[in-house]
Amino acid sequence: MGKLSIYGLEASPPTRACLLTLKALDLPFDWVKVNLMAGEHLLPEYLEKNPQHTVPVLEDDEVCIWDSHAIMPYLVGKYATTDALYPKDHHQRAIVDQRLHYDSGPMFIGTLLSLTKPLLFKGATVIEQSNIDAIADVYDVVETLIGDNEYIAGADLTIADFSFVTTICSLMVFLEPDPSKYPKIVAWLERLRQLPYYEEANGVGAAHFESMIKSKNFTIESN
Amino acid sequence: MVLVLYGTEVSAPVRAVLLTLRALELDYEFQEVDLTAGDHLKPDYVSKNPQHTVPTLQDGGAYIWDSHAIMGYLVQKYAKDDALYPREPLQRAIVDQRLHFESGALSVRWKQLKHLLFEEKVTELPIEKLHETYALLELFLDGHEYMAGDQLTIADFSIVTSVSTAHLSIAPVDATKYPNLSAWLTRISSLSFYEQANSTGARRMAELVRAKLPKQFDKLWQKAFEDIKSGAGKM
User: CA-to-CA distance for B204 and A17, rounded, in angstroms?
Assistant: First the structure.
């Protein structure tokens, strides 16, 4: 198999989603930190790997792939011994894909990034209440998506859970899901914390993210 | 097997699925979902798609939503070959990245712009963000005829629907600034099924958008008068 390297930042949810996948598949890989705060993602060497200059990037020998939602299926498709994490069944796969696009659209970019970009990269000190309300809207959707299942896309763990848990752990820094309103989300989070590789692949980075955000001492204002 | 597509043609993601259905020459029924009338919020629709977005595809007893998931599903289940959504892991990863780029960079931005225009009645729209996206699409196309490489894929269908709508309304694709993107737009719009599957709907949406904006002509005259008054703009 090729030599795998992950370029990213532990605080970044999509980076952690790929780490969870690599751990779940028990794949060896090199970790290369890309300090976004220091603009390392904008350096020429990085732009060659990923012209969109986001994290993470997966390097497989000489080939570079970016966007966590493309990296995870790639890893499962190329290296997994079963399709459990990304089912081949057409309907099951479509459900996982829909979940992944919910993350890459409304949840991660639409909701989380509109909070973190100003705070972490533009020196903002105030967040609008409407941005916090948007998180509650996301929780409403996720609670419904879980339904009667144990995992985000059905009865079994998939890469959709990795996407969702990493983004939601970061959303939680701004708004904790109320267990009386979102019992399924809370139960599902607890279920994922039991994964043996959870702490290493997500817990540590999620804590970094939390301290980065809290260090900004922002206030929330109603608009 | 009867495929039913729920949606409305002004919606870009609905058109992406229409392009795919046409490309695969699949028979389907189209069920209009009037978003302005709140059809998508009615219990009957929400039971099919709890996220109450359009499009939703019904295939037998299965309901699938998110245009990108639907397109992948249709190719994988019904296409004669994998050309539109290659199975080879690296090729697929490129298509997937483009599809998620559409979800994140294009769709989210377009929704934000529509919200500003239709809900908050803002008429000075921050279209710099769209131009950043155009610049990236220009890069993706470098050395290639299509969004994900040298052949047509569902990534082209996904991206052309939102780009064409923006191009026809608030952010025309300047061929001198974005030669690759402009050529690609021409290339995709010459597909035989493009007119019916995308063009009509994109134009309708563009008209709805332009109706909300002050007449461009008035703005140009206003600037010209200001320039004359200030003495600027003299070559």
Answer: 39
Which residues on chain A are in Cβ contact (under 8 Å) with B96?
67, 69-70, 73-74
Q: How many CB atoms lie within 10 A of CB A217?
A: 7
In chain A the beta strands, taken as DSSP E runs, fall at 4-8, 30-33, 57-60, 63-66, 126-128, 219-221
- pTM of structure: 0.94
Measure A66 CA to nearest chain B CA, in Å. Answer: 7
Report the C-alpha gap between B177 and A65 in whole angstroms: 27
ipTM metric: 0.97
Nearest to residue A58, comparing CAs of A119, A105, A106, A17? A17
Nearest to A50 by CA among A72, A70, A25, A79: A70
**Sheet strands side by side (includes B56-59):** B28-32, B3-7, B56-59, B62-65
Distance CA B85, CA B154 (A): 6
* Closest A-chain CA to B63: A91
Q: What is the pLDDT along chain A (223 residues), one digit of tens a residue?
A: 889 999 999 999 999 999 999 999 999 999 999 999 899 999 999 999 999 999 999 999 999 999 999 999 999 999 999 999 999 999 999 999 999 999 999 999 999 999 999 999 999 999 999 999 999 999 999 999 999 999 999 999 999 999 999 999 999 999 999 999 999 999 999 999 999 999 999 999 999 999 999 999 899 998 6
Residues 6+ apart with CB under 8 A from A103: A69, A160, A163, A164, A167
Task: Answer whether A104 sits within 8 Å of B100, measured CB to CB.
Answer: yes
Evaluate whether A49 touches A10 at the Cβ level (below 8 Å). Answer: no
Which residue, B222, B160, B214, B149, is CA-closest to B187?
B160
Per-residue DSSP letters for B65-77?
ESHHHHHHHHHHH
Peptide bond into A14 cis (omega under 30): no
Say if CB A206 and CB A16 are below 8 A apart: yes
